[in-house]
């Protein structure tokens, strides 16, 4: 079993156990003291209700839970426990938690006090509403003064808070079912978490316009409460989850993008040793990261030039512009370094260094030259080179600081699935939001050439704090610069599901890995794959690289929370994004069905196939 965990997740560490609490038609999962996937008659009402504490850099302070008691009766359930959150300074926030549930009501209360001045970016309740079946639909918001706002959930992703000063939210769950979520004890507002590819709208405590980090003073108690009430008609239908996953294929009228691979100066030695993988996966582009503020210089550019010459691939220089001196001087010096290194550029992607840090609502924008001036200086210093603009960070920043698309040849950004949560389910649910990310980017920039990446499970940089989080134990933690799941079947399924989700966006380049290192294609010591061999996601990328330029056929599945796919005339690629075996009905007899893996094991081929947990398969038609 330990080896199965390593193969699937790249780690032998298990996720925390969860317990399902049921009363009548209502069910909810209790995990780490918080509530997940509250359902009524099988319909998802809320994605989560959590009491969370963030440190000053928005990192998660995990709760030490004691005295947990959970009881269920025919009339309801109750949970009580004590939670201690410890700040990096050593101060402790102690909370007494009470959760109760009846057939149509759930209440979650927290009574807290700190034993020292506790520095935090947020301490309080967070409630996640789902996106599927909710985006664009009507919603009723009650404000703190009792007034009622009749509105709609955002369809296009909102860069700012769609609703503020929230006392209660009433939304439609399913035909004949609605829910009201009440918030007590502080001022709550909502952000559109699809910005970060979280599959949710998040209502949280303490407005972002207030200063952060802030102090919870020693010895000053506070209390908060969230109450969820279900309103259901007697004949409201339940969900039937017993059927096999079915597929519906429709031509998308677009070509699949070319595959890029990232390069990083700290990995140049390993990248030189792994050059053969670039041809094996069918990569067409090298995305070479260059950050002068981090000390990158001529040696990094010479290393990139060597890799470019040996691989024959096109090079994009991903340049973080310091903007500390006159732009023409800075850009001229960078151009001179590129010439001295002998690095031929196909494209230049520029982003002011300060724009890699987030500017939340209510904050002052950092000092930075206008983007038009940055682009003009880049064009003057690199004549004849295609110029890209956008954000080295995530769609969030691109959505908040709009790029003048007419001044660049393409727009680009990245995404990351572990900004707010790093459990397996949350990571795989990000594809619900990624679908909206590319739709929103297209709504902003029209048919402008569009690139995404490098996007990986682990975080390359942290726009929301001073640094990414070190992860020496290989755990599942938000904002980590290393994530073990990248190395297992989970990472391969995530990679294929990502590609299937953005395939209809008309991208010109998609980058989902680096060549080497913790974001790369090559296995290291202690992994399920032998050191130096291709990680499972590399086999997926080899299939995707072979599709470059081919016409995409969109695959709509009846369970997009379980199976995602894309197709061409000759094949279908499917990813199981769950830890359970999934039955899939193809609708026709395939010629061959095989796992996308080192051994390419064939599966039983029929009109109905069985996908193992986190399996990626290739179906030949």
Largest sheet: 9 strands, antiparallel
Which structural class matches the secondary elements? alpha+beta
Mean pLDDT, to the nearest integer, reads: 94
DSSP helical segment count: 11
What percentage of the residues does DSSP assign to strands (E)?
A: 35-45%
Could you tell me the radius of gyration in angstroms? 25 Å
Q: Gap between N and C termini, in Å?
A: 35 Å
**Unreliable stretches:** none
**Total strand segments:** 34
Shape: globular
In spatial order, strands of the major sheet run: 5-6-7-8-18-14-13-11-12
What's the helical proportion of residues?
10-25%
What is the structure about, briefly put?
This protein is α+β, with helices and mostly antiparallel strands. Helix content is 18%, strand content 37%.
Task: Provide an overview of this structure.
Helices cover 18% and strands 37% of the residues. It contains eleven helices and 34 strands. The strands form five sheets. Strands 5-6-7-8-18-14-13-11-12 form a nine-stranded antiparallel β-sheet, with no helix packed on it. It has an eight-stranded mixed β-sheet with strand order 32-34-30-29-28-19-31-33, covered by helices on one side. The chain has an eight-stranded parallel barrel with strand order 20-21-22-23-24-25-26-27. Strand 29 (563-567) and strand 30 (571-576) form a beta hairpin. Helix 4 crosses helix 5 (327-341) and helix 5 runs parallel beside helix 6. The mean pLDDT is 94.
Question: How would you summarize the topology of this molecule?
Answer:
Blueprint: H1 2-9, E1 18-23, E2 26-31, E3 34-40, E4 43-54, E5 63-72, E6 77-86, E7 92-102, E8 105-114, E9 118-120, E10 122-130, E11 138-143, E12 148-152, E13 166-174, E14 177-184, E15 188-192, E16 200-205, E17 214-216, E18 222-232, E19 245-255, E20 258-263, H2 268-273, H3 276-280, E21 285-290, H4 298-311, E22 314-321, H5 327-341, E23 347-352, H6 371-381, E24 386-394, H7 395-400, E25 410-414, H8 424-428, H9 430-445, E26 450-452, H10 489-502, E27 509-514, H11 536-546, E28 551-557, E29 563-567, E30 571-576, E31 582-585, E32 592-595, E33 608-611, E34 616-620
Parallel strand pairs: 19-31, 20-21, 20-27, 21-22, 22-23, 23-24, 24-25, 25-26, 26-27
Antiparallel strand pairs: 1-2, 2-3, 3-4, 4-10, 5-6, 6-7, 7-8, 8-18, 9-17, 10-16, 11-12, 11-13, 13-14, 14-18, 15-16, 19-28, 28-29, 29-30, 30-34, 31-33, 32-34
Helix pairs in contact: 4-5, 5-6, 9-10, 10-11
């Amino acid at each position: 079993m330990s080896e199965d965990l390593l193969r699937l997740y790249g780690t032998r560490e298990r996720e925390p156990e969860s317990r399902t609490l049921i009363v009548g038609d209502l069910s909810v999962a209790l995990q780490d003291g918080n509530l997940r996937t509250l359902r009524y008659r099988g319909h998802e009402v809320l994605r989560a209700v959590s009491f969370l504490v963030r440190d000053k850099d928005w990192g998660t302070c995990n709760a030490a839970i004691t005295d947990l008691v959970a009881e269920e009766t025919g009339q309801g359930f109750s949970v009580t426990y004590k939670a201690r959150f410890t700040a990096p300074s050593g101060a402790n926030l102690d909370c007494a938690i009470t959760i109760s549930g009846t057939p149509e009501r759930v209440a979650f209360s927290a009574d807290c006090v700190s034993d020292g001045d506790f520095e935090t970016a947020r301490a309080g309740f967070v409630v996640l509403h789902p996106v599927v079946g909710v985006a664009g639909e009507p919603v009723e918001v009650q404000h703190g003064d009792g007034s009622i706002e009749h509105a709609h959930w955002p369809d296009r992703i909102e860069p700012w808070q769609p609703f503020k000063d929230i006392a209660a939210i009433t939304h439609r769950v399913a035909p004949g079912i609605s829910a009201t979520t009440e918030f007590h004890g502080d001022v709550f507002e909502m952000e559109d978490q699809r910005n970060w590819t979280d599959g949710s709208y998040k209502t949280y405590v303490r407005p972002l316009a207030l200063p952060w980090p802030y102090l919870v003073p020693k010895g000053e108690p506070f209390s908060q409460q969230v109450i969820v009430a279900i309103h259901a008609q007697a004949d409201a239908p339940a969900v039937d989850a017993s059927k096999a996953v079915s597929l519906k294929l429709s031509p998308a009228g677009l070509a699949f993008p070319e595959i890029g691979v990232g390069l990083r100066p700290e990995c140049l030695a390993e990248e030189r040793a792994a050059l053969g993988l670039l041809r094996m996966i069918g990569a067409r582009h090298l995305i070479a990261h260059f950050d002068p503020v981090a000390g990158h210089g001529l040696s990094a550019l010479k290393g990139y030039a060597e890799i470019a010459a040996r691989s024959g691939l096109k090079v994009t220089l991903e340049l973080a512009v310091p903007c500390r001196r006159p732009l023409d001087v800075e850009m001229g010096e960078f151009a001179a370094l590129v010439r001295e290194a002998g690095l031929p550029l196909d494209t230049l992607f520029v982003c002011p260094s300060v724009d890699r840090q987030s500017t939340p609502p209510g904050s002052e924008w950092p000092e930075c030259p206008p983007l038009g001036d940055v682009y003009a200086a880049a064009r003057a210093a690199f004549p004849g080179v295609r110029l890209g603009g956008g954000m080295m960070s995530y769609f969030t920043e691109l959505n908040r600081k709009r790029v003048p698309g007419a001044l660049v040849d393409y727009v680009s950004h990245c995404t990351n699935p572990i900004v707010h949560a790093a459990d397996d389910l949350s990571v795989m649910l990000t594809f619900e939001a990624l679908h909206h990310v590319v739709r929103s980017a297209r709504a902003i920039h029209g048919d402008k050439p569009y690139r995404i990446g490098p996007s990986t499970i682990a975080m390359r940089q942290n726009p929301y704090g001073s640094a990414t989080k070190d992860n020496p134990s290989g755990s599942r933690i938000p904002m980590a610069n290393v994530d073990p799941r990248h190395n297992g079947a989970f990472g391969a399924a995530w990679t294929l599901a990502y590609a299937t989700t953005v395939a209809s966006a008309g991208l010109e380049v998609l980058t989902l890995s680096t060549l080497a290192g913790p974001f790369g294609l090559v296995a290291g010591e202690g992994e399920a794959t032998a050191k130096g061999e291709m990680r499972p996601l590399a086999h997926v990328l080899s299939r995707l690289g072979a599709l470059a330029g081919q016409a995409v056929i969109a695959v709509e599945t009846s369970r997009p929370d379980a199976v995602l796919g894309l197709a061409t005339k000759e094949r279908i690629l499917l990813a199981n994004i769950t830890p359970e075996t999934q039955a899939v009905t193809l609708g026709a007899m395939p010629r061959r069905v095989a796992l996308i893996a080192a051994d390419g094991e064939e599966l039983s081929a029929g009109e109905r196939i069985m996908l193992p947990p986190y399996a990626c398969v290739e179906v030949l038609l």
